[in-house]
Amino acid sequence: MPPPELTSVRSARVTAAHRLAKRSFRGKERRFLAEGPQAVREAVAHPGTPAGRTLVELYATPAAAERHADLVADARAAGAAVLTATPEVMAEIADTVTPQGLVGVCRFLDSPFEAVLAARPRLVAVLAHVRDPGNAGTVLRCADAAGADAVVLTDASVDLYNPKAVRASAGSLFHLPVATGVPVAQVLAGLRAAGTRVLAADGAGQRDLDAELDEGTMGGPTAWIFGNEAWGLPEETRALADEVVRVPIHGRAESLNLATAAAVCLYASARAQRAPGGCRSVTSS
């Protein structure tokens, strides 16, 4: 096995990659870190952005490069710079306590909000005032699994390129359009103008998700707004929605966490839209 190319944590490349753990540097460079083989594989497979290929650089320990030789070869074939590094250097770059030996430097993936609207989305998850990166990434993963067309993060929400959010998305960050930094009033007005029904998920909602399903009101284009797990959605945000809907609690649980509630709501919409008469009927593509 050849010796690693990067052996000093003070090298310029290592310093540049390490700085991407901070939001200010990510925003300046418009690059973020994707850690682990799954995230790197998704980055390699991503079709790219207007700025160029998604994966710009790949850092790997010699052991990881040997273990994931096919992935390293694909990264090189895609045009990424591949560099091997000692475990100590990898620990400096990676965000996790026990690095998996692969870290990619990727270009930002976010889409303009106008492009999300132009695509006439049928199911959208809107994160308003969500501050926890793990929650944000997990909701993105849920939206991807439910077949949503886009995710929007308002300007009061966490940075989706936070390493914890990227990990929590489990690769879904690379799968669907994401718009970021949009004022909540602009988001909801734009979605409504595009013919999308806006539902706010809130435990204090007067409408019940079961009732919405029973009454057949969820078959059309829908956007769900999800708020901060600790204090929910502000009154001014709830007032902008067409309906405020609660997930019914049939047992003795006090509440559902944000990601679980989001999964329930998004899958309810996905099921309604795929039913006969819904906007995603079984005969549609």
How do the helices and strands line up, and which of them pair or pack?
Blueprint lengths: L11 H8 L3 H7 L1 E5 L1 H9 L9 E6 L1 H6 L1 H9 L3 E4 L2 H7 L8 E6 L5 H6 L4 E5 L5 H13 L4 E5 L8 H6 L9 E5 L1 H10 L3 E5 L5 E2 H6 L7 E5 L8 H4 L4 E4 L11 H17 L11
Parallel strand pairs: 2-3, 5-6, 5-10, 6-7, 8-10, 8-11, 9-11
Antiparallel strand pairs: 1-4, 2-4
Features:
alpha/beta; 4-stranded mixed sheet; disordered C terminus; elongated; 285 residues
Give a short overview:
The protein has 285 residues and is an alpha/beta fold.
Lateral strand order in the biggest sheet: 7-6-5-10-8-11-9
SSE arrangement, N to C = HHEHEHHEHEHEHEHEHEEHEHEH
- Roughly what fraction of the amino acids lie in strands? 15-25%
Q: Given the structure, what is the number of helices?
A: 13
Model regions low in confidence, pLDDT < 50 over at least 5 residues: 281-285
Query: Strand pairing plus helix content: what structural class?
Result: alpha/beta
Mean pLDDT: 92
Q: Tell me how many strands there are.
A: 11
Overall outline: elongated
Helicity range of the residues?
25-40%
Oligomer classification:
single chain
